[in-house]
Amino acid sequence: MNVSPAPLPADTSSSAASGIRIPPQPQVLIDLVELLGSDDYDARRTAAVIGQDAGLSAMIFKAVRSPAFGGSRAPDSLDQAIVRIGFRQTLNIARAVALSTAIDAGRRRAYELFWTRSRELAQLAALIAEERVSVCNIFPDQAYMAGVFFECGVPVLMQRFPDYCEALLLDDRLDMPSLRDEDLRFNVDHSSIGYLVARHWGLPDFIAQAILHHEDVPRGELGAVRSLVAILHLASHARLHALHIHDYNWERTGDEVLGELGLHPDDLDGYLADLGERFLPLEL
């Protein structure tokens, strides 16, 4: 499992200069990444690290009771839960919990909605990657992790600029602001900040690059970055479709997304229906 941290990009200092705080990784996550990056880990040792954080432990137990991981029967111990989920997905959940905790704003509803949406997007991205892995070579755990971090620059900027995007987060029918508008108003955009967070938290470079280039399917990028961006766009479209919300971006991106993932437009409705049957909207 390759989880070694990547070096920070040079423009980290510019974000600090503008008062934007890149959230640090908590020690429990650093310890977990170090353990899983070694050749000497098992469920018991992993549980010992996770057990340092009660909130993270609770989320692991909550995840293992979902239909995706075997149903409602609760495991007897944290190490049994980790075995059922798997080490990679355990790390994904740990990153998701740690990130939402690190970017904390007193449980404001806009933040709660944002993290719920991120986890739903991650769930759908993993389902798409599982089904399309032979086409794009993106694995479900990679797609899940990208889904969690996909728009993470948004709550970071909300901390710096309290009115940033909050109204949009409270209404799924509205689009996120354009990167150009963000640059003009705040002299920064959420994709660049999300990229910095992803690099700072040691995500693989192709995931960080996908976050940076996610507004459109990047034509100049081949391979994993382009495929992952396409998966994230389709996951977002599938989520809105399942919630009966119009996707204003699909007309702009849909053809390239389907082409990259090897899907025919005539098959899209059936594909979305199949995803919708497996999609589990989360409760706040």
Overview of the structural elements:
The chain is mainly alpha-helical and 284 residues long. It folds into two domains: 12-102, no CATH class; 107-284, Hypothetical protein af1432. The chain is 63% helix and 0% strand. Helix 7 runs antiparallel to helix 8. The radius of gyration is 18 Å and the shape is globular. The model is unreliable at 1-14 (pLDDT under 50).
Task: Compose a concise summary of this entry.
The chain has 284 residues and is mostly helical. Helices cover 63% and strands 0% of the residues.
Descriptive tags:
mainly alpha; disordered N terminus; Hypothetical protein af1432; 16 helices; 284 residues
How far the N terminus sits from the C terminus, by CA atoms, comes to 32 Å
**Could you name the CATH homologous superfamily of the largest domain?**
Hypothetical protein af1432
**Domains, number:** 2
Major sheet size, sense and barrel closure: none
Give the % helix.
55-70%
Fold-level CATH name of the largest domain: Hypothetical protein af1432
| Helix run count | 16
Low-pLDDT windows of residues: 1-14
What share of the residues does DSSP label as strand, in percent? under 5%
Keywords: Kinase, Transferase
Region (Disordered): 1-20
Pfam family, one: HDOD
Domain HDOD: 22-217
Write the layout of secondary structure elements.
Blueprint lengths: L11 H6 L9 H10 L6 H8 L3 H11 L13 H8 L1 H16 L6 H28 L3 H10 L3 H8 L5 H4 L9 H8 L3 H11 L4 H8 L11 H19 L7 H12 L6 H11 L6
